[in-house]
Design brief:
Distance between the termini of chain B: 85 Å
Number of domains of chain B: 1
Mean pLDDT of chain B: 85
Oligomer: heterodimer
Number of helices of chain B: 2
Mean pLDDT of chain A: 78
Radius of gyration of chain B: 23 Å
Helix content of chain A: 10-25%
Largest sheet of chain A: 8 strands, mixed
Structural class of chain B: mainly beta
Shape of chain A: elongated
Number of helices of chain A: 17
CATH class of the largest domain in chain A: Alpha Beta
CATH topology of the largest domain in chain A: Rossmann fold
Order of helices and strands of chain B: HEEEEEEEEEEEEEEEEEEH
Strand content of chain B: 35-45%
Largest sheet of chain B: 10 strands, mixed
Shape of chain B: globular
Radius of gyration of chain A: 32 Å
Structural class of chain A: alpha/beta
CATH superfamily of the largest domain in chain A: Alpha/Beta hydrolase fold, catalytic domain
Number of strands of chain B: 18
Low-confidence stretches of chain A: 280-285, 308-321, 328-338, 443-477, 541-555
Distance between the termini of chain A: 77 Å
Number of domains of chain A: 2
Largest interface: A-B, 64 and 59 residues
Helix content of chain B: 10-25%
């Protein structure tokens, strides 16, 4: 075709042009998942203007064993590829994600950037290989490739609004390559059809990942954000847990806290996520808030804590009156109902708060949750009052094998009742001198208060009992309130040296034994450290402690354990001044720091908490001769206990997808975002 | 002394209530309203309507888990009974959009539904379980049960199929309950920002009973077994009946007739 000029002709209606056969083109698609595994044997259709105008039939076929589709004899037209939705979905549900995600910024307020943009470049190893081989590369989600919405089991809540991450194109138009991109291979990396599930282990042993994730869930229980806003319960489980480009986060007070998550098939996603709020009226007669979320393997319940604002929730926290622990709402007319525990008592305020929730949300707490537990692991968590309600809830479901993690919870049941709840696995976190775990006192206060103050005693007694906290030893008889579960404690430790009051022997004879020379004064050394202690990790319980022999001198024995961690009780007395230790902002950072440390103990630079501990140990060596003996022994034991926490990650690393979950968390977590009071 | 006591109590009351706003609802008589209509099948009864109002004027202080204080819109719940329209099976309630009062309450959401009125028809000691609920949210806030699953424009018409489901449970004490098995969870949740009419028609297929028996011990591999209306028994790890299977069974039976 040498003469490129064609004009309308007055003489002839056409002009003969001599050229060869029309040049035909080819294209190859290779479909891979994120691990580089081919998506083989999938039926496809390919369309262009030529097929749409019925000039040639549609291209049809199946991908080969390498996931490759080759189309020959193409006209120089854009070509659209469509894959059979059902088979593609089935295949992609069972493919794994790569550990590290692209983590694009979430668009902020008034930012028009789409929430799910195209994946940023330079991130995927498959992209590197494709580009190096001279191929085109595209990262696609299933909805950009399938010909319609696949069916799901359980079905979507609203099939007209499928989750936007996986299905960005509501028209299912397929994937189109422009005509100038023909004559080459295009590698299509397809994001597996997965969903995030919190990494949780339903086991009797302590797990750091459980502690971390359930602390975040206890924070989420406080969320009152509207459903579409980032950080609401529904948004977390139904949007963030389906957004595979990012690690889900919990939002509180402007801090974004990443979760440890594992990818599961899309059908195993969280299908039910209900925040429940006993919003009766303002002012609330009793304001109990909880959420529950259910996926294929977990039933997760988070209870919200109380208003800590000067203990302004008199309906619940303040009424320290032990009552028989049956919960009326559990019982239905004419059906025999077992009490929560055969013996002992439960705190009146907590029981009332729980009963209120049971009454208002009878269907959820009485039916949906118990029914969903079959074949799934039940996880319950809560902070403060939420912890107490969580324990009451766990007691009411004790046949269903609940796993409970609480943070700064008050005493809830009396000793007799606690001993009846032995089979419930419960790890109770206490932050140093947080006062809440010390209320109500270990005493049967009821009679005392009632005698002292009459019917108002149970309310007025609250202020009184706070003042009498230290005196609570006086009431160690009857059936006192006490704690349930294994303790996990953040323990601020100091060291003291002993020195003579005066170094001068000349004083020796001045005033006998009272003289400065004969007086020993304990000085506090400057280096402090906060230990993260889980006594149940001590070798007494640990069957597979390899180095138990070597550690014999430094590890916790049954005798020292009973001394440092008295059963049913708190190692340190709570103090009113310690109220600042109570908020989740003083629990979550220690677990966060510990998790980062345990994932990679040889991080460079080391975390502040690690440096502090090194300095602390150095201080021990420097002042070895003059240290207070008991303290020295205790701190050695605690250093050993602290070093055992890393072992609790083993179960996560061995779990399906667990190693990737930790790797992913380590990649998004910011080691400098350290909020620990003692360390930062 | 005796005379002084009431004064002391009065002073206490005044100091407690202070100069706070009157927080009561006072809808203007001629204001705009939303009509909720439920067509109640013979075997069922309409449940009480739970109506929630919100106010941006009357707020209260709440705290995050980290202890940070923030302001939340005030809210208030009132309960309403649906009123039968003559001798028909339609039950109606009118909800004023403007809740009035010093706080200028606005209608925020409503929770309602149908339930079995006489569960003992399914046997002695049978109680009602759950199902057949609807939540409609009229603004951008959460309902007491959280946010909506389905967003609709304009008026809202809901027609849903339900099947009677009798369940025997053993864990945590024996119970036998009859529930309504529908698509989705016990409540279907809608957001309908412009709706003035909400119409709910539950279609109950009484002839298609599904029963289930829960295992007596909780351990791995023990699952509830379901007996479907076509006689098939399925134990596949589900904790509620397969709604699509129920629909298929019914449609097959109906097409034979």
């Amino acid at each position: 075709m040498n003469d490129r000029l064609h004009r309308t002709d007055t003489l002839g209606s056409c002009k003969t042009v001599i050229c060869g056969k029309q040049k035909m083109h080819w294209i190859e698609f290779q479909l891979l998942d994120e691990q580089g595994e081919p998506l083989a044997n999938l039926p496809y259709r390919a369309l262009s203007e030529a097929t749409r105008s019925d000039y040639i039939p549609e291209y049809r076929g199946r991908t080969d064993a390498e996931g490759v589709i080759r189309l020959d004899g193409l006209h120089p037209l854009a070509i659209t590829l469509l894959i059979d939705a059902e088979l593609l979905a089935e295949l992609l549900q069972n493919r794994r994600l790569r550990a590290q995600r692209a983590e694009p910024e979430r668009p902020g307020f008034a930012d028009r950037a789409p929430l799910y943009g195209p994946q940023c470049s330079g991130f995927s190893p498959i992209e590197q290989r494709a580009v190096a081989a001279g191929h085109g590369y595209h990262y696609l989600r299933i909805g950009q490739l399938c010909d319609r919405l696949p069916t799901f089991d359980p079905p979507l809540a609203d099939a007209r609004q499928p989750p936007a991450y996986h299905f960005p194109d509501p028209k299912f138009g397929g994937f189109t390559i422009a005509d100038d991109q023909l004559d080459r291979r295009h590698v299509l990396e397809v994001c597996p059809l997965r969903a995030w599930s919190l990494t949780l282990h339903h086991q009797a042993e302590y797990s750091l990942v459980n502690a971390y994730n359930l602390a975040l869930m206890s924070i989420l229980a406080y969320s009152t954000r509207p459903e579409n806003a980032l950080g609401s319960v529904k948004e977390f489980f139904e949007r963030q847990c389906l957004d595979l480009s990012r690690t889900p986060i919990i939002l509180d007070s402007g801090q974004k806290l990443p979760c440890v998550v594992t990818d599961v098939p899309f059908n195993g996603r969280y299908t039910i996520a209900e925040p429940l709020d006993t919003t009766q009226a303002r002012p609330p007669e009793g304001d109990t808030q909880l959420f529950y979320a259910i996926n294929a393997t977990q039933v997760l319940v988070g209870w919200r804590g109380t208003e800590v604002d000067g203990f302004a929730d008199p309906g619940t926290d303040a009424t320290f009156r032990p009552v028989k622990p049956e919960v009326q709402a559990l019982c239905e007319p004419k059906v025999p109902c077992a009490d929560l525990t055969p013996e002992g008592s439960v705190h009146l305020g907590f029981r009332d708060a729980f009963e209120l929730a049971r009454r208002v949300y009878a269907k959820d707490l009485g039916k949906t949750i118990p029914e969903a537990i079959e074949g799934k692991g039940l996880f319950i968590c809560g902070h403060s009052l939420g912890g107490a309600l969580g324990l009451v809830h766990a007691a009411s479901l004790k046949e269903r094998n609940p796993l409970l993690y609480t943070y700064g919870m008050p005493r809830t049941f009396t000793l007799k009742a606690v001993t009846c709840l032995n089979e419930i696995v419960h790890f109770r976190h206490v932050n140093d001198i947080d006062p809440i775990p010390s209320v109500p006192p270990e005493a049967e206060l009821d009679n005392h208060l009632y005698k002292l103050y009459g019917p108002l005693g149970t309310t007025l007694g609250f202020a009184w009992s706070m003042l009498q906290l230290t005196a609570s030893q006086l009431f160690r008889h009857g059936d006192p309130f006490c704690h349930h579960g294994e303790i996990a404690m953040f323990f601020k430790a100091e060291q003291h040296t002993l020195r003579r009051g005066s170094p001068y022997p000349a004083y020796r004879n001045k005033d006998g034994l009272g003289a400065p020379y004969n007086t020993t004064i304990a000085y506090r050394l400057s280096e402090k450290v906060k230990f993260y202690l889980v006594p149940s990790l001590s070798p007494d319980d640990d069957q597979q402690a390899e180095q138990a022999q070597q550690r014999l001198t430094t590890s916790l024995t049954a005798e020292s354990r009973a001394r440092f961690f008295p059963p049913f009780s708190n190692p340190k007395a709570g103090r009113f001044v310690g109220l600042g230790n109570h908020f989740m902002s003083n629990y979550q950072p220690y677990i966060y720091g510990q998790l980062l440390e345990s994932i990679n103990p040889e991080r460079s630079p080391l975390l502040k908490r690690q440096l502090d501990r090194q300095n602390f140990e150095q201080q021990t060596r420097d002042n070895y001769g003059s240290l207070v003996e008991d303290e020295l022994a205790r701190n050695r034991v605690f250093l050993d206990l602290q070093s055992r926490l890393g072992e609790t990650l083993r179960v996560t690393q061995q779990a399906d997808g667990g190693a990737e979950a930790l790797q992913r968390f380590d990649a998004v977590a910011d080691p400098s975002a350290c909020y620990e009071r003692t360390h930062c | 002394m005796i005379k002084k006591m009431p004064i002391a109590i009065l002073t206490l009351c005044v100091s407690l209530s202070g100069c706070a706003k009157d927080q009561s609802l006072a809808p203007p008589p001629d204001g705009e309203s939303i009509t909720v209509t439920v067509k109640v099948p013979k075997e069922l009864v309409a449940e009480t309507l739970q109506v929630m109002y919100r106010s941006t004027l009357c707020t209260f202080t709440d705290h995050s888990a980290f202890g940070e204080a923030y302001q939340r819109d005030g809210y208030q719940r009132t309960d309403l009974q649906l009123v039968r329209e003559g001798q028909s099976d339609r039950y109606v309630a009118k909800l004023p959009i403007d809740g009035g009062g010093a706080c200028q309450w606005r209608l925020s959401n409503v929770t309602f539904g149908v339930a079995y009125g006489h569960p003992t028809n399914f046997g002695e000691n049978v109680t009602y379980g759950a199902g057949g609920g609807v939540v409609v949210i009229f603004d951008h806030n959460n309902s007491p049960r959280g946010g909506a699953d389905i967003k609709v424009e304009g008026d809202l018409t809901i027609r849903k199929d339900y099947y009677p489901w009798v369940k025997e449970s053993f864990l945590g004490g024996y119970r036998k309950r009859v529930s309504l098995a529908g698509e989705g969870d016990i409540y279907v949740m809608y957001q309908a920002l412009q709706a003035r009419q909400v119409y709910f028609e539950p279609v109950l297929h009484s002839g298609f009973l599904v029963t289930s028996v829960q295992p007596k011990v909780k351990k791995k591999g023990n699952h509830t077994s379901f007996t479907y209306p076509d006689g098939s028994v399925v134990t596949d790890g589900r904790s509620k009946p397969d709604f699509r299977k129920l629909q298929a069974i019914r449609q097959a039976a109906e097409s034979k007739q």
